[in-house]
């Protein structure tokens, strides 16, 4: 009886009491299931089934009322004591949403579980499901993870309907199309795929839909479930799908020809394809008249946060000749009282910083600020005074941390943090030689990546002059009548992808 | 996948079995800012001045010596430097070397071994100054504790830099420039001399030297030492040193004086900018060097009654200045030609560049040609400024005296 598979093709029977028995058995007699049996004006038994907490009871009531009226007028007009066909009821019933005619029990379950009210008349092997869903949801609030000073201050919520409406509100165009899917064998989470027909590349849309269809998973509770299952390359730390809680970012991405995937239940909407530069650009770059100065700063910060500890380690343990003499002497005097090698010192401080960071996320807000004070003052200053670490190293690690926080996407921070430790190891063993070798390896890896067929490092590699308008810097809007076309068809090398089949073949062949 | 990860892991382990060769924490290094090299009975005596980082940045008021000198001797320089480790806990680190002081005796007997060592050593950058200790041993120069700068070698480095810029008769010579100057065809090298002055030179290396208001021992730069190949053959005096720098176009700023209107009083001249062109050519089969000096100067002092508002007076000063400069340049070249017979002005190099065919015919006996080389000097000066007071105070005073009478 208990089954999670969709292969349950049991049909509804014409007998009302059998159906009720079946429904009760399948839903385990759950306490939140309401099964209301009653008699309709044509003197026939009927039943409505709904989940207490998922439906708007007033709506259910009004539906019952209109059904009674409908059948009453019907029986007055027609002397035959017969019930009208379900399609007649569908056509004449006064409800907003289209009722669905249901004949299989599995369909019935899906409908009830997503807030529909099921209506069944005795003697019919079919029933009606009418949308009466009223699901509790949060109001639209200010974004928490992607703040801007100037720009829209609304964020997505957990409800995919709200999220869809927020996007629709921004792009009023008939070409904004939306396709829904239910993913998750048990959770049956609603996924909406949105794109602008004619701007988004057909192959990308096709490949996203196809990959979504091939997902096999029990439940989906956050966009990352989907992200990991549809990404191009699984052997990478770098994100190839972007996520955002900002409707304006999604709207802008749709205009660039990207596809958004809205997962019900999370305020983070996925955007694909996503390139390396996407993660360093911020929505605010387009809202201020600085033409990308802060964006350049962020690219600079990317290198600082990735490289500064390893460069510092290399300088003080291998390449002392590269420091100016007075600086060398200052650093040497700090070193006098530090017992550990510079690498261990950096490792210690970086670990402490990562711990603090993690702690400050997990901590309840009320004690979050004491933690940062403890971290900054006690650990920083006292560690120096206790002779555990040198002041120079504290400054370097602090600089690393600050630079890391300038990056608008949390996602890109993850590979940076992991790579930073690897770079530090390379610096400790080989100095600048090791750091350079690691940089080369990293760049090679980045150039090898693709996001839905688009080279991850474009428009740097392959270099596309036209797209530089909105890459490192942002040209003023009056210079961007023709939008950069990173995500458009031209970028996909024709050899690699023409169809999804070829794409899959290409993935299998490529050694990863 | 398993195979790949095994390969990757084994490579990663390989990395770590190398250890960290050539890795040195900062507190394992003796950061050496200066070296003093003396030679006695065929052995090199090397003193390395290393910083004491803690003392150098200490904020406390009590005085710590910010640097210390460690020394050892050896048959070769490298031996001597390595032997220093017997007296100190850290290895000598030469990449930040600022000054090398070579004793006069050693320089007289030739410094080619030293230059070879420094240019061969892969740790050393060639951007440090080399100076000659005059009248004192090299080690003595190194151990004079400065009162303003902290580390003696650093002080010497900055003194050279500054006096070269502001005063003129000294010239800072980096290792690479020195080697080029010695080894290039048709050129010889010079080095600046340095000595120790002060009433009480014996306490130069102790704390008491810093506590004296006056008369403390200090170092002083002394003119230029003339080299023939790698041997020191003599010294130029101050005027000659200045003339040398004029000819080599090294002068950035300097000061001089002129006699004032046939009296024994003086006019002070500040050279603000000087530019020299040396041309080499052959005329009637005779090699000729033509030196053209252009300078811009300010009048900085006037000790006699003179009205600088009058252009004739300025012209007169200009003329005097040109005449005097030409005189010292000609005298210097003459003395070097006659007395030292070494082409420190790099005239041969000029011929090599401008008249290569002629150079090939004389390069084997260039020194003899140099001794009798005809040199033409022309000087063109311009007084551009007379300071903020055009009419001199002395002039005003004398006018007042006249009116009082």
From TrEMBL, chain B:
Domain Spore germination GerAC-like C-terminal: 224-387
Record-linked Gene3D superfamilies: Nutrient germinant receptor protein C, domain 3 (3.30.300.210)
GO CC annotations, alphabetized: membrane
UniProt entry tagged with the keyword Membrane: yes
Principal subcellular localisation of the protein: membrane
Membrane topology note: Lipid-anchor
Domain (Spore germination protein N-terminal): residue spans on this chain: 23-195
UniProtKB keywords: Germination, Lipoprotein, Membrane, Palmitate, Signal
InterPro entries from the UniProt entry: GerAC_N, Spore_GerAC-like, Spore_GerAC-like_C, Spore_GerAC_C_sf
Membership in a protein family: Belongs to the GerABKC lipoprotein family.
Protein name, entry field: Spore germination protein KC
Organism field: Paenibacillus endophyticus
Lineage: Bacteria, Bacillati, Bacillota, Bacilli, Bacillales
């Amino acid at each position: 009886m208990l089954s999670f598979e969709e292969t349950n093709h049991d049909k509804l029977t014409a007998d009302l009491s059998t159906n009720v028995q079946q429904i009760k058995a399948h839903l385990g007699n759950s306490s939140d299931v309401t099964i209301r049996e009653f008699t309709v004006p044509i003197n026939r038994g009927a039943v409505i089934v709904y989940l207490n907490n998922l439906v708007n009871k007033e709506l259910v009531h009004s539906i019952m009322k209109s059904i009674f009226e409908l059948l009453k007028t019907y029986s007055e007009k027609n002397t035959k004591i017969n019930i009208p066909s379900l399609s007649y009821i569908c056509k004449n019933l006064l409800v907003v949403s289209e009722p669905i005619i249901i004949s299989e029990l599995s369909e019935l379950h899906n409908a009830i579980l997503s807030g529909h009210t099921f209506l069944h008349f005795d003697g019919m092997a079919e029933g009606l499901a009418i949308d009466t869903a009223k699901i509790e949801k949060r109001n639209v609030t200010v974004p928490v993870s992607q703040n801007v000073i100037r720009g829209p201050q609304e964020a997505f919520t957990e409800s995919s309907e709200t999220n869809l409406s927020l996007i629709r509100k921004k792009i009023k165009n008939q070409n904004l199309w939306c396709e829904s899917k239910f993913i998750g064998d048990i959770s049956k989470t609603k996924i909406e795929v949105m794109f602008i027909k004619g701007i988004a590349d057909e192959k990308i849309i096709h490949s996203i839909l196809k990959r979504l269809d091939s997902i096999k998973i029990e439940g989906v509770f956050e966009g990352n479930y989907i992200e990991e299952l549809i990404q191009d390359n699984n052997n990478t730390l770098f994100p190839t799908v972007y996520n955002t809680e900002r409707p304006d970012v999604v709207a802008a991405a749709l205009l660039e020809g990207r596809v958004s995937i809205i997962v019900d239940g999370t305020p983070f909407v996925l955007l694909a394809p996503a390139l390396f530069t996407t993660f360093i650009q911020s929505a605010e770059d387009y809202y201020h008249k600085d033409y990308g100065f802060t964006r350049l700063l962020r690219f600079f910060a990317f290198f600082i946060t990735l490289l500064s500890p390893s460069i510092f380690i290399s300088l003080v343990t291998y390449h002392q000749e590269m420091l100016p003499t007075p600086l060398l002497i200052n650093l040497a005097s700090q070193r006098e009282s530090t017992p550990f090698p510079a690498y261990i010192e950096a490792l210690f401080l970086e670990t402490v910083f990562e711990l603090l960071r993690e702690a400050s996320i997990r901590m309840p807000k009320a004690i979050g600020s004491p933690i940062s004070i403890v971290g900054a003052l006690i650990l920083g200053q006292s560690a120096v005074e206790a002779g555990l670490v040198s002041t120079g190293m504290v400054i370097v690690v602090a600089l690393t941390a600050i630079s890391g926080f300038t990056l608008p996407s949390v996602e890109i921070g993850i590979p940076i943090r992991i790579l930073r430790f690897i770079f530090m190891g390379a610096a400790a063993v080989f100095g600048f030689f090791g750091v350079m070798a690691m940089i080369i390896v990293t760049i090679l890896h980045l150039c090898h990546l693709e996001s839905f067929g688009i080279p991850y490092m474009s428009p740097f590699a392959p270099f596309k002059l036209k797209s530089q308008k909105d890459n490192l810097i942002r040209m003023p809007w009056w210079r961007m009548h023709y939008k950069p076309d990173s995500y458009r068809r031209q970028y996909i090398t024709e050899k690699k992808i023409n169809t999804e089949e070829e794409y899959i073949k290409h993935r299998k062949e490529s050694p990863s | 996948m398993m195979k790949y990860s095994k390969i990757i892991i084994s490579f990663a382990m390989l990395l770590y079995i190398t250890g960290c060769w050539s890795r040195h924490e900062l507190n394992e290094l003796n950061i050496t800012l200066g070296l003093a090299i003396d030679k006695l009975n065929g052995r090199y005596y090397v003193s390395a001045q290393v910083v004491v980082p803690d003392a150098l940045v200490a904020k406390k008021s009590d005085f710590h010596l910010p640097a210390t000198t460690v020394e050892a001797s050896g048959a070769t320089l490298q031996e001597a430097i390595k032997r220093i480790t017997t007296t100190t806990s850290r290895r000598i680190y030469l990449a930040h070397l600022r000054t090398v002081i070579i004793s006069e005796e050693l320089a007289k007997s030739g410094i080619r071994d030293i230059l070879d060592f420094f240019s061969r050593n892969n740790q050393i950058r060639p951007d440090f100054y080399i100076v000659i200790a005059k009248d004192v041993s090299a080690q003595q120069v190194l151990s004079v504790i400065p009162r303003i700068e902290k580390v003696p070698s650093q002080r010497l480095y900055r003194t050279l830099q500054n006096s070269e810029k502001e005063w003129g008769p000294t010239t800072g010579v980096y290792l690479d420039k020195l080697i080029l100057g010695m080894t290039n065809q048709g050129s010889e090298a010079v080095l600046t001399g340095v000595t120790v002055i002060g009433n009480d030179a014996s306490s130069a290396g102790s704390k008491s030297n810093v506590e004296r208001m006056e008369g403390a021992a200090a170092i002083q730069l002394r003119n230029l030492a003339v080299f023939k190949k790698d041997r020191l053959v003599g010294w130029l005096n101050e005027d000659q040193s200045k003339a040398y720098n004029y000819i080599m176009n090294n002068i950035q700023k300097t000061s001089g004086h002129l006699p004032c209107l046939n009296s024994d009083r003086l006019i002070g001249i500040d050279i603000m900018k000087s530019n020299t062109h040396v041309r080499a050519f052959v005329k009637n089969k005779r090699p000729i060097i033509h030196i053209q000096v252009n300078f811009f100067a300010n009048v900085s002092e006037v000790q006699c009654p003179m009205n600088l508002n009058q252009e004739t007076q300025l012209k007169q000063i200009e003329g005097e200045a040109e005449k005097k400069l030409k005189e010292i340049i000609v005298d210097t070249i003459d003395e070097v030609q006659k007395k030292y017979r070494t082409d420190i002005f790099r005239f041969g190099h000029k011929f090599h560049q401008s008249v290569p065919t002629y150079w090939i015919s004389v390069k084997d006996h260039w020194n003899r040609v140099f001794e009798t080389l005809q040199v033409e000097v022309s000087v063109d000066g311009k007084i551009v400024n007379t300071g903020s007071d055009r009419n001199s105070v002395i002039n005003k005073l004398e006018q007042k005296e006249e009116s009082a009478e």
